[in-house]
Design brief:
eight-stranded parallel barrel; Immunoglobulin-like; about 20% helix; 28 strands
Length: about 650
């Protein structure tokens, strides 16, 4: 590859070749207002203008092509329609903004094409995939494909009501999965199911287990399957590995018709370095920073967007709105927010460039994230945005007008790390690490939290959740059941990666599938049944979800019983009604006559016990319920005398 320029020079307009101008009045026509908003960083539906679009000119059908390449000497459309000959269809520049445009008669949907770009200053020549392509060839091929996104949706009922499904006081329980490895065909070569094949299978399974939403690892186009979709090359293209754009729409439509929301993993934090993609697009560093200390991510081997560039902001904002507009996505989970916020993220001294004030905060990225959330909630107040943010950055999920980043939710990575680290320890020494469980409540109401047990915890040698539990096989199953109950009992929305619900014993592999045969074992079926019952319990009892994001929804009963490694708390409804008391025994020792304070008198019904035999447990419990006694305990006048199962959680429901 030729030496790359270290700065983007100011473009000068080349002499335009002959081209057919787009007709007036068409939605895809580039107007001076479009170019102005694009250059200002305010165009949020740029996908309607750039890329390839079917069009009729003088009664002749064809496609209009438009691409941003301000530092190109020449740009040609090459493809199946011209034998990939760059001399046939040379593009002309529109006025300002460095956008090249051409209408080509006779081009039909489903035709492969690229842009042949020759740089003005370096002589660099390259064939690039359209950054705004709606679909591409199946990897490892990389050509863009002309396409029409028309689809007849049948999810009007869901779309009308979806705003209430992910509110802060609603039950939100997300099943995270990787499309290609959730389930595969049962005969060689064991191909992944298509979008349409997955639709009924996934909808039925998610409904059976009671999850409210699914979250897909990125289905934007990516060349390397092993990146799980996080090395994106097509920010407007659904991966063609599993079918067409309409096939993905069918999957989402079917999930919606079955009452299941869809969360998309959105990746504006970095992009793939493949030559056909965005990097060094027109012979200059157009989308990424030129300085590798700012523009290259050392951990992921990928480019970092230049968030200070107005056109890049328009590109990313348009990508976010595109998936909401065209695919009816219900929430955008933004990947790698911490890597965007900090200029020194995963870098040593001397490997990063301070901002203009000498600090480590990425001011351009901060402003982009605020703008991203503002635009999403302006156009779609009934969706949510979710930040994967692993630091103590303040007010991630607080409104921008209060100084926050504006996200609807934030992943609580601290809860996840502390809880798993605690459960990996031998129960004998857990009493010395009790604060790893209790510390979370110090900050629990600082954000609108989601409690993730995600794909990141079961890859790269970390092993499955089942194997993280300390002890022998019995203790691992019991520990996993305890972990899941603890997740559902704590305040915060829930997310579980596929495989955790069936106690997968091996690390997730993107080129395999879940070990469905393990469900022949009653212990694995027991964990699956527990997840279904936890979801039902979480959704069906207001106290379990209404206060997930409010200070009044959770109270400790006793967070100081480190000598027994026991925690107890009460979940309180916002609207009035039954209270739920949860007691958790983190040792493999049954505890008889354990006393815990409760909010009031009466019979407290044991509504869920992770040690029940139906879940694979030893069936140690409280015979369905316990009558509160007027004996003070834990600062409360009434208390229960209960039996705690080994490595078990029990929930009691009482009316006060």
């Amino acid at each position: 590859m030729p030496t790359r320029l270290t700065a983007t020079p100011k473009p000068t307009a080349p002499t335009p070749p002959v081209a057919v101008a787009p007709p007036a009045g068409e939605s895809s026509q580039l107007t001076p207002q479009d170019l102005y908003l694009f250059s200002e960083g305010s165009h949020v539906r740029l996908y309607e203008k750039l890329g390839s679009h079917p069009m009729v000119v003088d009664s002749v059908e064809g496609f209009q092509f438009a691409v941003w390449a301000p530092n190109a000497e020449t740009v040609s459309v090459i493809g199946d329609f011209n034998g990939w000959d760059a001399r046939t269809h040379r593009m002309a520049t529109a006025d300002g903004a460095g956008v090249w445009v051409l209408f080509i008669p006779g081009v039909k949907p489903g035709v492969c094409y690229k842009y042949r770009i020759t740089a003005r200053f370096s002589g660099y020549r390259v064939d690039k995939t359209d950054p705004f392509a709606f679909t591409t060839e199946i990897a490892p091929k990389s050509a863009a494909v002309t396409w029409d996104l028309k689809y007849q949706w049948n999810d009007a009922a869901w779309m009308k009501a979806r705003g209430a499904k992910m509110k802060h006081d609603a039950p939100v329980s997300i099943y995270e999965l990787h499309l290609g490895s959730w389930m595969r065909e049962s005969v060689p070569p064991y191909l992944s199911f298509s979008y349409r094949q997955l639709a009924p299978l996934l909808a039925d399974y998610v409904k059976k287990l009671g999850f409210t939403h699914v979250e897909f690892l990125p289905f934007t186009e990516h060349p390397f399957y092993g990146s799980w979709g996080y090395q994106v090359t097509g920010f407007f293209a659904a991966t063609s590995r599993y079918g067409t754009p309409q096939d993905l729409m069918f999957l989402i439509d079917h999930l919606h018709q079955n009452g299941i929301g869809v969360v998309m993993d959105f990746v504006p934090s970095h992009f793939a370095t493949d030559e056909f993609s965005l990097g060094y697009f027109d012979g200059t560093h157009l989308f990424e920073h030129a300085d590798p200390r700012q523009g290259y991510h050392p951990d992921w081997g990928s480019y970092i967007f230049n968030y200070d560039r107005h056109e890049v902001r328009s590109f990313l904002l348009s990508s976010a709105l595109f998936w909401l507009d065209k695919y009816h996505i219900d929430a955008l989970r933004v990947d790698g927010v911490a890597s965007m916020l900090y200029l020194d993220y995963s870098r040593k001294n001397g490997e990063w460039v301070p901002n203009q004030y000498g600090g480590k905060e990425n001011i351009g990225a901060i402003e982009f994230l605020k703008r991203f959330n503002h635009e999403v909630y302006t156009y779609y107040p009934d969706v949510q945005t979710i930040a994967e943010e692993s630091t103590s950055w303040p007010m991630v999920s607080r409104p921008t007008y209060l100084g926050g980043l504006g996200f609807g939710y934030k992943w609580d990575m601290g809860w996840m790390h502390d809880t798993l680290k605690y459960l990996e320890k031998d129960p004998v020494i857990r009493k010395y690490h009790h604060n790893e469980l209790t510390f979370r409540q110090v900050y629990a109401n600082a954000e609108n939290y989601m409690l993730p047990l995600s794909h990141d915890e079961v890859v790269h040698g970390k092993g499955p959740l089942w194997d993280k539990m300390a002890g022998d096989e019995w203790q691992k199953f019991a520990g996993l059941r305890l972990l899941l109950a603890y997740q559902f009992g704590m305040n915060g929305k829930k997310l579980l990666f596929m495989g955790g619900e069936i106690a997968q014993r091996t690390e997730w592999r993107h080129d395999g599938q879940l070990p469905w045969a393990s469900l022949e074992n009653p212990k694995h079926r027991g964990v699956q049944q527990l997840v279904a019952d936890l979801n039902s319990f979480y959704k069906g009892v207001p106290a379990m979800h209404e206060g997930d994001c409010e200070p009044g929804g959770f109270e400790w009963i006793d967070c100081h019983d480190e000598s027994h490694s026991v925690l107890s708390f009460v979940r309180l409804p916002k609207s009035g009604g039954d209270r739920i008391v949860g007691i958790f025994n983190f040792t493999p020792v049954p505890r008889q006559n354990y006393r815990a304070g409760v909010p009031g008198p009466g019979v407290w019904k044991e509504v869920l016990n992770t040690d029940a035999d139906v879940y694979g447990g030893s069936n140690v419990g409280n015979a369905g319920g316990v009558h509160a006694e007027y004996i003070a305990c834990n600062g409360r006048p009434y208390s229960l005398n209960v039996t705690l199962p080994p490595l078990g959680a029990v929930f009691f429901r009482g009316s006060v």
